[in-house]
Design the sequence.
């Protein structure tokens, strides 16, 4: 099936989309976009991660990690063949897992999926769902209107120095992609200040802010760029780069000039709020067009 055929199927199918949602605001931005595009949604919210107050605003069911059989039964009962994984989710502690019978039966497959980086884990989990009759879609396939556009999102644009930092950042992300490290870096004046690892983007930005306070960053405030991009060869159905209002706040605290993302390959939650916060704090949000780190 070609990409255009797949997108046509997604648009024409009127069955509800099941959104398996972790933490953060993205699951709800996706749900709202799907509703605007004419399909129903059912949230399959993960206990301990999804925001209970916001989940309650949509048709939903709660599931615990390890309840694969329960999730399958709920999705089928709601008529959901298409599923989307979205939202933050750290590798769980053993005490957070509640195994049901079907999960116990497929434990060897789950163990195999865990033997590798996050990309390997997510791809392995996807294959398990597909073996049980579900179709795994990316957020960009069901909610294309929240993808980052090319160019400036707000009023400010990057300088030539900022563009040079972006180019260096993309080259760095491309080179470290095979190691499954992260999707974001901070570069200021050509110097690498931080590379995202297990802590995630928000905590990485806190680290940069702390480095500035300690005098460990030579460049002045207002210099430097956060760049987020998918890894080369990444399956964009899972863990697509995303930014939101909290990202803008983190960039401001870190004393950077702005944030750059890959146009068409990055999700933006609450785009209007992102643009307004960026303008209000004098930073830019910029979508880089053309070849991406994931191509």
Sequence:
């Amino acid at each position: 099936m070609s990409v255009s055929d797949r997108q046509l199927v997604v648009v024409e199918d009127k069955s509800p989309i099941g959104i398996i949602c972790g933490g953060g605001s993205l699951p709800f931005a996706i749900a709202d976009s799907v509703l605007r595009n004419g399909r129903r949604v059912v949230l399959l919210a993960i206990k301990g991660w999804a925001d209970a107050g916001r989940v309650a605003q949509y048709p939903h069911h709660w599931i615990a990690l390890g309840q694969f059989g329960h999730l399958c039964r709920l999705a089928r009962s709601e008529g959901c063949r298409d599923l989307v994984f979205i939202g933050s989710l750290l590798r769980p502690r053993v005490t957070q897992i509640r195994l049901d019978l079907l999960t116990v039966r497929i434990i060897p497959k789950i163990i195999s999926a865990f033997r590798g980086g996050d990309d390997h884990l997510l791809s392995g989990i996807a294959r398990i769902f597909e073996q049980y009759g579900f179709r795994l879609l990316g957020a960009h396939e069901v909610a294309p209107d929240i993808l980052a556009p090319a160019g400036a999102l707000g009023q400010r644009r990057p300088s030539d120095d900022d563009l040079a930092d972006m180019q260096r950042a993309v080259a760095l992300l491309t080179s470290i992609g095979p190691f499954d490290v992260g999707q974001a870096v901070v570069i200021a004046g050509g110097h690498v200040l931080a590379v995202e690892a297990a802590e995630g983007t928000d905590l990485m930005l806190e680290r940069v802010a702390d480095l500035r306070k300690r005098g460990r960053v030579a460049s002045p405030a207002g210099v430097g760029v956060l760049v987020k991009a998918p890894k080369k060869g990444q399956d964009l159905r899972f863990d697509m780069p995303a930014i939101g209002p909290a990202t803008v706040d983190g960039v401001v605290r870190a004393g950077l000039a702005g944030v750059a993302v890959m146009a068409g390959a990055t999700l933006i939650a609450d785009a209007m709020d992102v643009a307004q916060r960026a303008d209000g704090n004098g930073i830019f949000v910029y979508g880089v067009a053309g070849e991406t780190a994931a191509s």
Notes: Confidence is low (pLDDT under 50) at residues 1-11. The longest strand covers residues 41-46.
